[in-house]
Amino acid sequence: ISYLSLKQELLERTVEPIGLVFYAFSWHLIGYCQLRKDYRDFKIDRIKELRQTMNPFEVSKHISLSEYKLPVNY
Q1: Measured CA distances, 65 to 12, 42, 49, 52, 55 (Å)
Q2: What count of other Cβ atoms lies within 10 Å of the Cβ of residue 42?
Q3: Could you tell me which residues come within 8 angstroms of residue 7 by beta carbon, excluding any fewer than 6 positions away?
Q4: DSSP E strand stretches across 24-65
Q5: Residue 45, helix vs strand vs coil
Q6: pLDDT tens, residue by residue, 21-65
């Protein structure tokens, strides 16, 4: 994905998605970020481009969406 950060920087990330969730009045993509080697939250309205890769991943390797810890102060 191409993603606009809070600092208004356009970032490139390869993400293995685990799901979408609505909180804090916005939709968020939750997925495993290959760069950070951890699960991350990407606000949908900041995703500027989405590209499909031919790199498969195993969903069973990842946590479920219900296991992802949302921020406590939303």
Answers
A1: 23, 14, 23, 21, 21
A2: 19
A3: none
A4: 26-33, 38-43, 47-49
A5: helix
A6: 999 999 999 999 999 999 999 999 999 999 999 888 887 889 999
